[in-house]
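TL;DR need structure tokens for one chain.
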Amino acid sequence: MPLTPPDPDFESRTRASFAKQAAMATIGARLARVAPGEVHIDLPFREDLTQQHGFIHAGILATVLDSACGYAAFTLMPADAGVLSIEFKVNLLAPAHGDVIRVRSRVVRAGRTISVCTADAFAARDGQERHVTTMTATMMTVTGRDNVTG
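>> reply
TL;DR here they are.
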């Protein structure tokens, strides 16, 4: 069933909010796709984001997956809302090593206050993708707080 955002400017609002995230800028993550209830983020491989075996660190993966889930939920929130993570679970399926990590997130259920999302990370190399991580997350719609908007 197609999802209808309450804010017709959801895409520009989502992109503007993502651009404010210093953490995403620091690790070089890019917002690749924004659609109602769906966000894709690309993370180019960098040596300084790896753990001791040369794979993207699990903490870095969790950070990108969390942002993807949050922004997928954010696309379906009112224009004056902010989003905060309240819970997530990560399954590391395979070592994350490739030219780029592609994260695809979608809303499973959007509620008035609580939304449940999933995200999957794929390591891409030579046109092939390998599923490396999955996340299930719960996001909260925050309104009426000046310090938690957009």
